[in-house]
Every structure is written in structure tokens, then in C-alpha cells.
Design brief:
Helix content: 55-70%
Radius of gyration: 28 Å
Shape: elongated
Strand order of the largest sheet: 1-2-3-4
Mean pLDDT: 80
Order of helices and strands: HHHEEEEHH
Oligomer: single chain
Amino acid sequence: MDNSICKVYEDEIQLLEEEIKLLTEKYEDGQQESTFFSDEEILMSINSLQKEFQGESKGNEHPSDLKARLESLETDLSFLMKFTGIQFRSHSKKTVEKTGNRTVQKHRLSGNCHSLSFQLEFQLLEMQNKESVSAVITDLSILLESGEDSDVSKFVSSTEEHGNLLTFFRSLSSYAEWYEYRRCTFLHFK
């Protein structure tokens, strides 16, 4: 009986020693990671976080004001969706590269415009100067449901070359509206 109790305690001691070893390794890894940053960089990060926190605490609004503002934004969004016919189903953003004054992000959008489905994929290159930020769209790829029309495919190709999303969405809204009218008309005559 004493042997079995000793065995249980020895097993428990061994498990605790293994846990201590794992925790020690994790601690050392954390220490090594923190040494990659200089004291100056750590202080700059702390100051930045403090400024953000102070800005948030100064800008705190009453919950009823936030709720009213949210309702206003939802109303505006609903109006824009009805006005343009564009509804976004999904959006994803991934940072590909980030340096001091340059950021490259990859975006994916999908949605509907009236009855047409579309998907966009592009990279957004942001360059920051002391005075301003400039953004350029690169590697634009557009998939449009009604790509069989040669005029539409020419328009899509031109838009992909120039990377002009505003023109694309304006034209898509108008085209999709008339596409829907044509579809209903042809259904009527069938």
C-alpha cells in the first residue's frame, strides 16, 4: 500500500516538474521576444496607447447618443443600398506588407447589384507622407455574372487596367438596373 501511494506521489511530482519546465520555456521565449524591441520602441508604443486611450475617454459619448448615431448610419446605408442597388455580402482585408510609410493590403469584396452578382479582388497601396496619405489600387480583378456580353467584358477589362473602382460601381449600378429591366421584358415575351 505504501508503494502505491509513493508511486502516485512520484507521478504527481514528475507531472509538476514537466509543467514547470514548460512554463520556464514559455517565460524564456517571452523574454527573448521582448528583447527584440528597444526601450525607445517600447516607450513609443506605450505613449501611443496612452494617447489612444485618452482620446477614447475624451470622446466617450452617452450610450443613447451612440445608439442614435448608429440608427442614423443604418438609415443612410439602407438609403444608399436602395438608391444604388449595390449590396455587399462579404469583405475581407489582409495586410500583405507594412513598412514605415508604406502599407499594402489585399481586399476581397462580393455582393449584388440588383440581380447581378460581382466579386472584386484588389491590392491597396497606401503611401504616407508628413502632410497626406495617398492610396493606389493595384492588381484589380473583377468577376461579373453577366460577363458573356462583349461590351461588359471590355468595360471590365478597362476598369481592371485603370483600377478605378468609383467608375466601376457607378457603371455597374446603371448597367445592372437596365439588365434587370431587359430580363423582365424578355421573360414577359416568353
